[in-house]
Automatic annotation (TrEMBL):
<feature type="domain" description="FAD dependent oxidoreductase">
    <location>
        <begin position="3"/>
        <end position="357"/>
    </location>
</feature>
<protein>
    <submittedName>
        <fullName>Glycine/D-amino acid oxidase-like deaminating enzyme</fullName>
    </submittedName>
</protein>
<keyword id="KW-0560">Oxidoreductase</keyword>
<dbReference type="InterPro" id="IPR036188">
    <property type="entry name" value="FAD/NAD-bd_sf"/>
</dbReference>
<dbReference type="Pfam" id="PF01266">
    <property type="entry name" value="DAO"/>
</dbReference>
<dbReference type="InterPro" id="IPR006076">
    <property type="entry name" value="FAD-dep_OxRdtase"/>
</dbReference>
Length: 384
């Protein structure tokens, strides 16, 4: 019998399960689909501090970006390189502005005060870092802490550690409802002491079924993938509009330029954000806008064919902060959700924080801003 059942085998559920199992907690992970097949599979693998304003999320991001390389090193030692490969790349990030240099430089100064390594550089230095980047820029900021990993590999690595420690990962098993002493699943009742809601965009629906509704809404995002052009883009590069899109509460479509390479040499082009319920369909008109904006930053991309497009839903909380912790209304119910497009980067610290709270250890970061019973999350909406 497990001590804890984690519902959701994406990157957040996997990180929570790994952190709990590392402390000796018996864990079972359930997912109605296959592991890492939802939001995690639709992400870029961003591990960023550059896009976050000073505040609780940035604090969590700094803790996570420090934890990820150490955690992956520990798992490689425990599991071996074949089971613990996540394509970790501490590549650094480059944020550029084509106009209004003052706004980006002011934002970077605030981040610097908050502990981020943010260096304002000249346009010439930016082009030296990225030779294919347009020189038609107003300013640029280099973020050496930004990194990238392969999200599906990262999640499956975390889940492999859970299995190695005696835990279970059960794909194709739906959680139906909480009951006293455990959780009802499509395969029967599972006894446990606690249940973690790590259902991503579906966390709101799960919370309703559990009798403790929280406001977590789906927000759609899309990406383009080009044919391989090795070493064409060396860092994560995005325009300053991306920061505003991340922080926006607007439900309407927003696009901003994000360009980066993978280890396979393909180039990922993003990004879009749009609140359209659970509609995860791909819209060609949005992809066209994203491609046009990317070409403005990297003109050479006009000659590179696009191989495919993909997208998915991200779990959005109205105040743009994750929900991490115990629900005060239902004994044994915990939540780890609401990370929107930052879940990959925030996962390592989220798992550690949830495990700290569950075990009564001093938390790695202040949990108060992420508590379940805060107004923006408890103010239940019906437009899911």
């Amino acid at each position: 019998m497990p001590d804890v059942v984690v519902v959701g085998a994406g990157i957040i559920g996997a990180a929570c399960a790994e952190a709990l199992s590392a402390a000796g907690v018996r864990v079972t992970v359930l997912d109605r689909g296959s592991a890492a097949s939802g939001t995690t599979a639709a992400g870029e693998g961003n591990v960023l501090v550059s896009d976050k304003q000073p505040g609780p999320e940035l604090t969590l991001a700094l803790a996570s970006i420090a934890r990820w390389p150490a955690l992956l090193a520990e798992l490689r030692e425990e599991l071996g390189p074949d089971l613990a490969e996540a394509e970790w790349e501490p590549k650094g990030g480059l944020v550029v502005a084509t106009e209004n240099a003052e706004a980006l430089e002011k934002f970077a100064a605030l981040q610097l005060e908050a502990g981020v390594q943010a260096d304002v550089i000249t346009v010439a230095d930016a082009v030296a870092l990225e030779p294919h980047l347009t020189p038609d820029l107003a300013t640029a900021v280099y973020y050496s802490q930004d990194a990238q990993l392969q999200p599906v590999l990262a999640a499956t690595t975390l889940l492999a550690a859970v299995r190695r420690r005696g835990g279970e990962v059960r794909p194709g098993v739906s959680a139906v409802k909480l009951r006293s002493g455990g959780i009802e699943t499509c395969e029967g009742f599972l006894h446990c002491d606690a249940v973690v809601n790590a259902c991503g965009p579906w966390a709101g629906a799960f919370s309703e079924a559990a009798g403790a509704p929280i406001t977590v809404l789906p927000r759609r995002g899309m990406l383009l993938v080009t044919a391989p052009v090795p070493f064409a883009v060396r860092h994560k590069v995005y325009d300053a509009d991306y920061v505003g899109a991340v922080a926006s509460a607007d439900a309407d479509l927003q696009t901003s330029t994000v360009v980066e390479s993978t280890q396979a040499g393909t180039v990922l082009i993003g990004s879009s954000r749009e609140r359209v319920g659970f509609d995860d369909s791909i819209r060609v008109a949005v992809l066209r806008v994203m491609a046009q904006k990317a070409i403005r930053l990297f003109p050479m991309l006009a000659q590179v064919p696009v191989m495919r497009a993909y997208g998915g839903l991200r779990p959005y909380a109205p105040d743009h902060l994750p929900v991490i912790g115990q629900d005060p209304r239902v004994p044994g119910l915990w939540h780890a959700t609401g990370h929107e497009g930052a879940g990959i980067g925030l996962a390592a610290a989220t798992g550690q924080l949830l495990a700290d709270l569950y075990l009564g250890r001093p938390p790695a970061v202040d949990p108060f801003p992420f508590r379940v019973d805060r107004p923006a999350v408890m103010a239940h909406e019906t437009d899911r």
